[in-house]
Amino acid sequence: MARPTTAQRGYGAKHQAERARWAPKVDAGLVDCARCNQRLEPGRDWDLGHDDNDRTIWTGPEHVTCNRKAGGRNGALVTNAARTVAVRTSREW
Predict the structure, then answer these.
(1) Alpha-carbon distance 92 to 88, whole Å?
(2) Predicted confidence (pLDDT) per residue in 38-60, tens digit
């Protein structure tokens, strides 16, 4: 299965425009991370975060680690919920 395009994943022109709108404030050191509420350091990489349940709702700039940790956690929940677990015992009854 091919990975969806960036636009299909919610990172198209509107996302880029929103990121560009935030960039001057982030570069000036005026923005706190939308996830951890700690200041984003000027000159460091950052992600434009979105709502965990609706990718069309942006929450604001986030530290890369905060954003991707949340994405990994949410992805693991989905993956693990889809798994079926076979119960194994030490004996055949």
Answers:
(1) 9
(2) 999 999 999 999 888 887 888 99
- Does the residue 91 lie in any domain? no
Distance CA 89, CA 80 (A): 21
49 phi, psi to nearest 5 deg: -75, 160
Distance, CA of 56 to CA of 41 (rounded, Å): 26
Instruction: Identify the CA nearest to 63 among candidates 34, 23, 21.
Output: 34
Please indicate, yes or no, if residue 87 is contained in any of the structural domains.
no
CB 48, CB 61: distance < 8 Å: yes
Q: How far is CA 85 from CA 7, 35, 61, 93, in A?
A: 35, 33, 38, 19
Q: Tell whether 59 is covered by a domain.
A: yes
* pTM > 0.85: yes or no: no
In a domain, 69, yes or no: yes
